[in-house]
Design goal:
Strand content: under 5%
Number of helices: 2
Helix content: 40-55%
Number of strands: 0
Distance between the termini: 135 Å
Shape: rod-shaped
Radius of gyration: 43 Å
Structural class: mainly alpha
């Protein structure tokens, strides 16, 4: 009986030891950060047009400094 128990114990140890190391090392790759692309604003032309209109108005209107007495 001891002989059977010893051989069963030896076989169990041999099989469990080999399955403990099965599969090899686990390599985890880190994912890169997602690339963030800023969309161009749709109203990119509004500011230059408004500034241009203000400058044209300022030049066209001029100053009304009449020194008539």
């Amino acid at each position: 009986m001891k002989r059977i128990a010893a051989s069963v114990l030896a076989l169990t140890t041999a099989f469990t030891a080999s399955t403990a190391f099965a599969g090899g090392p686990v390599v985890i790759e880190e994912e890169g950060q997602p690339e963030v692309v800023a969309d161009s604003p749709r109203s990119g032309w509004i500011v230059p047009v408004v500034v241009g209109l203000v400058l044209i108005c300022a030049i066209a209107c001029g100053s009304d400094d009449d020194t008539a007495e």
